[in-house]
Amino acid sequence: HAEKKTIADHLRKYEALFTLSPQRMRMIVHAFEETLDKGLQKDGEIVPMIPTFVFGYPSGKETGEYLAVDLGGTNLRVCLVTLHGEGRFEVTQTKYRLTEEQKQDEGQKLFDFCAECLGSFITDNLGRTEKDEELPLGFTFSYPCSQERIEHGELIRWTKGFGAPNVEGHDVGAMFEKSLKKFNVRCKMTALINDTTGTLIASNYVDPNTKIACIFGTGCNAAYMEQAGNIPKMDELGLAPEQDMAINCEWGAFDSFDHQHLPRTKFDIIIDESSNKPGEQSFEKMIAGLYLGEVFRLVLTELIESGHMFLGQNTYKLEKAYAVDTAFLSLMESDPTDELLTVIGVFSYFFGLETTLEERVFFRDLAKLIGRRAARLSACGIAAIVSKKGYLEEGCAVGADGSLYNKYPGFADRIHEALVDIFGEKGKNIVTHHAEDGSGVGSAIIAAMTKSRK
Ligand code: ADP
């Protein structure tokens, strides 16, 4: 028999679990900074700090027409980007939804699908003939790849729920080119890039004060510019020490395996242990869009099991793993009505459950706790780069993209609030803003930069 606890008691308990104090955040920032340094020292570290072979920021003068293919966690996008120079551009794009089967099916088929979509995009939008020159293509592939050249990248491991066999350990650039040949797609793949690197370059093209880029979408990650002299693991390439190179941090892996630094709750542990990659991507699993709805759902499951919620109602729909999308949390947090009518709608329409006003207020408060924790952890990652690079005094802009950042109410404000908690008033010098489309525009600019280097 359930002991008598009020909803307010529950809320207090979860508040204690999900709240990060300024002091705790500073400890995380410190450990994070050390981890970033380690990744620059040698290969095979948990946070791999991948050199991208994107050499420095764009000049802003890059021009021309480029194709871009972006294999994200949720969608495949194909774009035609026209760069006009001086920070101006135009984009035409088509989106294709990826199915769960495609994410687990034979790897080469995934690239075949990308090539087929690109092929029909070119036919529909470009009207080019055999005589026309092939357009350069930037391929945005946002999974950790170790690179030896700009158009090469060996997949280290799948993230964000992907598991397609025979891709890990292979050069995805070569796999995609094989598919392009197979479907006779006329274009020249010139750059394989990560969405964070693309975002860094695209945001900097428009606002040169941008020094860091972050993605908060299905997964989470960041990129920034580092000098070769600070990347000991690249010494053998013999680059000039002051040569800039964009680093794809792959910071979602922070605190993986040993779990020493992040305050994981039992809900985070359940998510991790029942994922297809237990132990990995610890930071990402507490922040990203793929997981926040599931954290929320697991809390409700606990309350259902202990007999504190939905007594006498059929809760099977809510008991299905990943039944709660992070978008529901957004919806609940932005419900403007006193009665919380949106929350009523979400629960009755999607889960067939009736709710009291008191419960709905609790759900909204719980969403706030989970969303706020994600934003504060994100701020810790940003703060680690800021502190490492000494950007605090002069300040800098952080280009951010992804549905979580763009659509979750208050996500950016919560990051800014946390930066002040970490750094004091000076934290206000670090400002995030919605980034230019990195995986389209960024990959086009990088393709242009690559062309001019050759
Ligand atoms: P991707 O990272 O795959 O390129 P997105 O940036 O669109 O794509 O991120 C998709 C993720 O964002 C999904 O996990 C989804 O749950 C989450 N999401 C979608 N809409 C919203 C929303 N309105 N609020 C918060 N999260 C959302």
UniProtKB/TrEMBL annotation:
Record-level GO cellular component terms: cytosol; mitochondrion
Catalytic reaction equation(s): D-fructose + ATP = D-fructose 6-phosphate + ADP + H(+); a D-hexose + ATP = a D-hexose 6-phosphate + ADP + H(+)
Limits of the Hexokinase N-terminal domain: 11-205
MF terms (GO), sorted A to Z: ATP binding; D-glucose binding; fructokinase activity; glucokinase activity; mannokinase activity
Protein EC: 2.7.1.-
UniProt pathway annotation: Carbohydrate degradation; glycolysis; D-glyceraldehyde 3-phosphate and glycerone phosphate from D-glucose: step 1/4; Carbohydrate metabolism; hexose metabolism
Presence of the UniProt keyword Kinase in the record: yes
Domain called Hexokinase C-terminal: residue spans: 211-449
UniProt KW keywords: ATP-binding, Glycolysis, Kinase, Nucleotide-binding, Transferase
Entry keyword 4Fe-4S: no
GO biological process, one term: mannose metabolic process
Protein family (similarity comment): Belongs to the hexokinase family.
Name of the protein this chain belongs to: Phosphotransferase
Taxonomic source organism: Filobasidium floriforme
